[in-house]
Amino acid sequence: MKQLRRRLSGLGLLLSLLLLPAFLGAQEAVLPAFREEYMAWDDFLMSYLGTSLSADDGGDGSDAASSALLEELESLHAHPLNINRATRAELLQLPFLDGAQADSLLSYRAKKHGRLLTLGELQFVPGLDFTDRCRLSLFVYAGEAPDSLRRPRPSPRLWRDGRHEVLTRFDLPLYRVRADVEHTVAQVAASPNKYYEGYRWANTTRYAYRYRRALRYGVTLQKDSGEPFGTKGTHTYPFDYNAFHFYLRPEAGRYELAVGDYRVRYGQGLLVGDALTLTRTSLLGGMSLARARLTPHASTDESRFLRGVAGSYTFPIGRSAAYGGQDGPSMQLQVSAFGSYRRLDGTVSQDTLTSFKTDGLHRTLAELDKRGRVGQWLMGGRVQLEGNIVRPRPLWNGQQGFYKEGVWTVGITAAWSRYTRVVWPAPRPYNLYWLRGRDAAGVAADYAFRLGRWAVQGELALDRKGHPATTHTVRWRCGAEWAWYAQCRALSSRYVSPWGTALAQNSRLQNELALLSGFRWTPDRLASLFTLEAYAEAFRWPRPVYRLSRGGNGFEAFVRPTLRFGRRHSLMLTYRFKTREYDVAGTDLQQLTGLHRLRLQWSVADLCPHLSLTVAADGSLYATQTAAAETGLMLSSRAAWKALPDGRLTLSAFAALFTADSYAARLYAYRPHLQQAGGSASYSGQGAAAALVVEGKVNEILSLGLQYNLLHYFNRSTTGSGITEAEGPSRHDLHFQLRLLF
């Protein structure tokens, strides 16, 4: 007990030293007094991320929404932009906006002399349909606008005029799993993967400072359930996961710098990618051009990030005549470089790494033994040239000017990596061409241009042995009524890129041929009443993949019509179908499997004052050629109530009844949760689930939150599996959260 108190005291001293400069320099946070939100946050995540919130069949995980993407969206929602002051770069942080939409919004704002009184004026911005405006309302607000008649404000100080945020959350399971029992040294030695080495509670603590897009820094500390706390011998001191990030990009400067943990995305992500790869449903909403992107990593995702130093510098090349009322560079050259060194988890056999471990869990002695077993050096750089496509037009004074009609960009990226151990997975038919050895390298060339209604972008990458991978996407947009895109991918079976995360059906960026096409239609006369979204994708794996010994084909289709009845009611039907081939266990035969998912959702805003309600029915059907079909059915409901008119107290609730024949026919539902504390959950078997979230603002600085989750099975005497199995048919857990914003 004394040792635990000493560790807690040390942790308190550490946090105090970290936060002391923040409190000394704290300024009053300028928050919107009223936010016009035209859709519920939960509905946005379900519609935008769509299938990525419910990674399902196939085991490929290609659509699995990473925690980094979800947490980044939540961070953007918690720190909305003042639309009257937002820059183009800040607007392009929103992944559903493309460059043409951002330019259109800024042009409209200029015509209004930089002053939008309400977000309702977005309906007059060309290129923004009803869905875009609803989504945008979650991330922006109509705040104070610049006014030349007022006394000019002093120049902002990056280090003092931003917002500080401290967030800590404790997760307490009210049940005991099989691994959370008293054990002896002999028991651990005999079964090193059966007993927790730490405490069952979990904690995430964050401190972050943000000044618009110019400066961000902070720390992230996390201890998962079952992991040790404050133990130097297991390298979990003070937490199992300790991260630091620093990002600087002066608003009027030409450079950007990241130190600590960061993510990069160059081109289409075939060579070097990050966790913000677009999903198939998000492509329906917009497509930003392939520019270099450098972002700090503040997420608790312990696998998809780099650790070191990265930066870029932009050189203007020449100047064009006036367009849009101002002079601007005709072209600009951006030079980027990055370097990273991280210790990665994995399984080592005779000084050879046979597999990587990416879940970030270090609960048992066997998991702790895999911690940091290999070091990875990663270095690279990029040269990018960007220019404007301009068209002449007469100016008011009789002279000839120009206006920007489009943009183009081309870039070349190179990367090299070396591991401190030989990487050599045990040979299997599906992994013969995975990364083997100690080195990996590659080079890629990408392009993108937007002209009028058309946008095209693509990339060609070669690994160090010359094996190619390429992807190309074309998008056409007709005002706010039609948006269509098509994408083709061709990834060599021998292409190796351990850092790429581009869109693919296979779990790795190799061994795939695919053609994807989708559209979104919002009839002009029914813009606020009806939207239809759909996509279809055909893909082929020429060589074996996991659970498929001879390669095979697959097909995926998605359709989602949405009906709106005024501003309060909406009815959405979502259907997704995916078929692919699998091996038949115990034979050399293959079979087709098909998974159908259907969801009917009705949502109503302001059912009564400050109450929103969503009711949904989900169904699934998993069919194979060798077994009977398996089905699932779920009825669920979500409700959100602002108990106080000023939003200082909110209550969110979720309840569901489900039945599913097997895990293959499992069902998904998005549960309300505390900030950066979860997402969707999957259900199989027969049972019920519930959640309750209470969040309150004590004052303008302090907020408190409480979340309670319940899962109960009607047909089981235990819950979970493996080391997380618990006696009894029910699981209860609590989450406590404290947030300071100043």
What does the largest sheet look like?
26 strands, mixed
Q: Portion of residues in helices?
A: 10-25%
Radius of gyration: 26 Å
Number of strands: 32
Bin the strand percentage: over 45%
Helix run count? 8
Query: Mean pLDDT across all residues, rounded?
Result: 82
- State the distance separating the first and last CA atoms: 35 Å
Shape: globular
Uncertain ranges: 1-31, 51-65, 148-153, 320-328
Structural class: mainly beta
Please tell me about this protein's structure:
With 742 residues, this protein is mainly beta. It has eight helices and 32 strands. The chain has a 26-stranded mixed beta sheet that branches. It is globular and about 80 Å long.
Top keywords for this entry?
globular, 32 strands, two-stranded parallel ribbon, 26-stranded mixed β-sheet, about 750 residues, mainly beta
